[in-house]
Design goal:
Layout (H helix, E strand, L loop, with lengths): L5 E4 L3 E7 L2 E7 L1 H11 L4 E4 L6 H12 L2 E3 L11 E6 L5 E6 L14 E5 L1 H4 L3 H11 L5 E5 L10 H12 L4 E5 H7 L5 H11 L3 E5 L5 E4 L4 E4 L12 H16 L1 H6 L1 H16 L9 H8 L8 H6 L1
Parallel strand pairs: 1-4, 1-8, 2-6, 4-5, 8-9, 9-10, 10-11
Antiparallel strand pairs: 2-3, 6-7, 11-12, 12-13
Helix pairs in contact: 1-8, 8-10, 10-11
């Protein structure tokens, strides 16, 4: 593989999805889902994760490779492959219990245009501190994206988690949070206040997803919103990851300035990606073809060059 366009750093695990009629296992983990999402959207993607050479680890490796994601050779460093036990509620929402470990090798170099991280990988030690150090060491030309995807059960110390998140956000070009992340990280603050606060840390673009209520974003000209698309919900396992994958794709193809000026369109495209993802079981981000077909009109991105010229 030539140099990746997107390097995703974070956990890959097995989601054990439990429903009333039994359980099934899927490859999951927010960063792994996002890596598959950007690959399905046509971007050269590499995943740096932490898996073991056990049956589940080999299954993860086969799955991401089959999706066109390059698995970083230093990902094989775990003693066991992590799992997430996901209980699916009547509304399709998932509640998780984790059995995991996370570490990151030191001394990594990357030539990727975009580096993405977040979720468990940013907060769980010993790997979390290494992720933060890596972000700080990246050249200024590297675009950085972040989705904290907060798991409160794994983060007993709110102050430490907030400090870690804000340190990472200060190096980012794009940050996406869910409204649940906002409630936990910034209790009592409005979405508009949180958007402005995080933008002041450094990111050019900040987005907050709101589930069925859509999403809101700020790129320096005030908050703009987008409605969610209606449709059947099987489960919400990869809704946020599919939304984020579309945002990363837009950032990569347009660049921060052009994406900021076209933020409503980028948010709408991401909302369509999330709508497709929740219509099927497990972590299943849309392909570019599916996303374009769902729009029912000319794709948001004809090409990076054409978009910049418009």
């Amino acid at each position: 593989m030539t140099a990746p366009e997107v390097l995703v750093i974070g956990e890959a695990l097995i989601d054990i999805v439990r429903r009333e009629d039994g359980h099934r296992e899927y490859v999951g983990g927010s960063p792994a889902n996002l890596a598959i999402g950007t690959a399905r959207l046509g971007h050269r993607t590499q995943l740096l994760t932490h898996i073991a050479r056990d049956e589940r680890g080999e299954r993860i490796a086969r799955h991401v490779r089959d999706e066109g994601v390059d698995l970083h050779e230093r990902s094989w460093s775990a003693r066991r492959t992590s799992t997430a036990d996901a209980e699916i509620g009547p509304d399709g929402s998932a509640t998780y219990r984790f059995d995991l470990s996370w570490e990151l090798p030191r001394g990594l170099d990357t030539a990727a245009s975009v580096v993405h991280t977040g979720s468990i990988a940013l907060f769980v030690e010993p790997g979390g501190a290494a992720v933060l150090d890596l972000l700080a060491s990246l050249p200024a030309s590297t675009l950085v994206t972040l989705d904290p995807n907060v798991r409160p059960s794994l983060l007993p110390d709110h102050a430490d988690a907030l400090t870690r998140f804000e340190a990472a956000a200060s190096r980012c070009d794009l940050v996406k949070l869910s409204d649940e992340d906002v409630v936990w990280l910034y209790p009592g603050r409005s979405l508009e206040q949180v958007l402005a606060h995080i933008r002041a840390l450094g990111p050019a673009i900040v987005v907050i997803t709101r589930g069925a209520d859509g999403a809101v974003g700020d790129a320096g000209n005030g908050a703009v919103g987008v409605r969610a698309y209606a449709g059947g919900v099987v489960d919400t396992i990869s809704a946020g990851d599919s939304f984020m994958a579309s945002l990363v794709s837009s950032l990569l193809e347009l660049g921060p300035d052009a994406m900021a000026s076209r933020l409503p369109g980028a948010l709408d495209r991401a909302a369509r990606a999330a709508a497709i993802a929740v219509s099927v079981a497990g972590a299943n981000p849309p392909t570019r073809a599916a996303l374009d077909a769902y729009a029912g009109e000319r794709p948001f991105h004809a090409s990076a060059t054409e978009e910049r010229a418009q």
